[in-house]
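Work Package 3 (structural annotation) set out to generate three-dimensional models for the target panel prioritized at the project kickoff. During this period the team completed the workflow that converts sequence records into discrete structure tokens, so that structures can be stored uniformly alongside our sequence database. As a representative example, we reproduce one entry of 171 residues exactly as it appears in the project archive.
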Amino acid sequence: MRSTAVAVVVAAFFGVVLTGCGGASDEELQQLDQRIAALDKRVADLQAQLEDEQAKATAVEKRLTARLRAVRRQISGLETTSEAASAIQECGNKPVGGGWTYEQILGAGHTNLTATNVSCSEARFVVDQLDFSSDPPSYPGWTCEYISHEYEFAEIRCTSGIKVLRFQTGS
């Protein structure tokens, strides 16, 4: 009696019309078995697909977590670097025909070189490589402008991204 009730409930669920009140025929039970087998296969396929998707999601999550950690390390490093580099550095003076020095110079040359977000060695190199035949002076990757420009004297500011150089030149 119980198997008949289960067969009726399952048949109703799957839309199978059972003949007679006494129970399901062999053909009807066979149809139910086929539909249950098809559903079992579909459930197994969906579970396998779900496991694949979960594995992919886990892999993506691991990659994103690793990238996030790397970006956080870079950001924390940049804060320290930018704080230290943003201070204006005094990089010295260079007389014509001489080398860079922190001593006061007399006569022609480059004076009062300051650098922001760039090392003094790079700042000196850029100033040494500036093409003064162009107006204003130029160097690849840098943009220079006159802050003030008078007879035999100029104050020049050069930038490259966040790097800034400033100096005077003349005689």
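The longest strand covers residues 109-116.
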